[in-house]
Amino acid sequence: MPNSQSDIRRRFYYEIRSHEVSVRDRNPFMSERRIPSLDGLRAISITLVILSHLVKWKHVSAVVLGSYGSLGVFIFFVLSGYLITNLLLRERERTSTIRLKDFYLRRAFRIFPAAFVFLAVVVPIYWKQMTWFHVAAAVFYVANLDTTRPWIFGHLWSLSIEEQFYLLWPFAIKRWYRYRLAIVLCAFVVTPVFRTALYAFHVHTGLAVSLPVFSSQLAIGCLLAILAPRLPKIPGWLSLGMLAALILIPWFPAITPTRTLFLLFVLEPILHVSAAGLVLHLIQVPYRALNWVPMAWLGKISYSLYLWQELFCSNASLHGGYFLALPAILCACLSYYLIEQPMLRLRDRFTKRPASQSAPHVMPQDLTAAS
């Protein structure tokens, strides 16, 4: 009899675990598999960034397309907030805790190798244009506070903000888990107040590109991860309205104090909610175009592509128009397949967990946002 009862309990346990895994696989908000459409969204974002750099450095004259570079950055921040928070919440659901050491180790394997190889290549080439201070700011991910950084480091400001977010948010969500929603909402509300203070006091130091300036963009992604399982399906007509907001609001001319305040406290919150709603819609309704193999592939290499596009697309001494994106893609491929992928395999070996502590058949999705 004891043996039969033990067998019954064991079968019951495995049935529950199988049901949990099945639910995770069907529900994109509970699953740790790669989420459909998001690689395609990354591809669009990195394309907007590249076009903006080509326009900024006068390689091409498509001013309309070049105006959306900041939108590409914005989308990356929203995705980072969403995916990182999603991973942290799922881990806590499975294990009742968040292993900060594992998280930071996985982030280090994901971020540092490709970035340090980029630095190892460009620093010797452009050493005459930089100092040890610039290099140190880039290495320690505080380039956003370095207002005198050379053009070759011009794109590292957003990666610095991302790394600072990765450092602070997991600690905060573990330490004050029950207040996670309040923390995110406070970050969302405080951002326009902080930016208003910067404008009022004419601050042009590194604070103007500090983490609090962009915390609302990351916070809306975090908020989406927290609320997504309870949110209804976004209808198509509403998603079109959100898309229209993303296209039109960046053109608003905030050329007076009143218009600036209207942008900060009205239009930008609408923009943020629209971006989060659109991400939710694309997760709920995976569009074929965003999951087209070449589109998804471009999204997968977007981190390396972001790193290397600066060398070509923001280089005023080069001339090649749109074709400057080709060597950037080539370098990104080399970085992705020769550096990123081997380091991720090595990471998985270092952070391998016992089978009892992880859900079977699931693969964590990584994201390092480019800008």
Describe the structure.
- The chain is an all-alpha fold.
- The protein has one domain (39-349).
- Helices cover 68% and strands 0% of the residues.
- It has helices spanning 2-26, 38-56, 63-66, 69-95, 100-125, 132-139, 156-175, 180-200, 211-227, 236-248, 257-284, 293-300, 302-313, 325-350.
- Helix 2 (38-56) crosses helix 12, helix 2 runs parallel beside helix 13 (302-313) and helix 8 (180-200) runs antiparallel to helix 9 (211-227).
What is the count of DSSP helices, taking H or I runs of 4+ residues?
14
Q: What is the number of beta strands?
A: 0
Structural class: mainly alpha
Which whole number gives the mean pLDDT? Answer: 88
Keywords:
371 residues; mainly alpha
List the helices and strands and how they pair.
Elements: H1 2-26, H2 38-56, H3 63-66, H4 69-95, H5 100-125, H6 132-139, H7 156-175, H8 180-200, H9 211-227, H10 236-248, H11 257-284, H12 293-300, H13 302-313, H14 325-350
Helix pairs in contact: 2-4, 2-12, 2-13, 4-7, 4-9, 5-7, 5-13, 5-14, 7-9, 8-9, 9-11, 10-11, 13-14
Summarize this entry quickly.
The protein has helices spanning 2-26, 38-56, 63-66, 69-95, 100-125, 132-139, 156-175, 180-200, 211-227, 236-248, 257-284, 293-300, 302-313, 325-350. The termini are far apart.
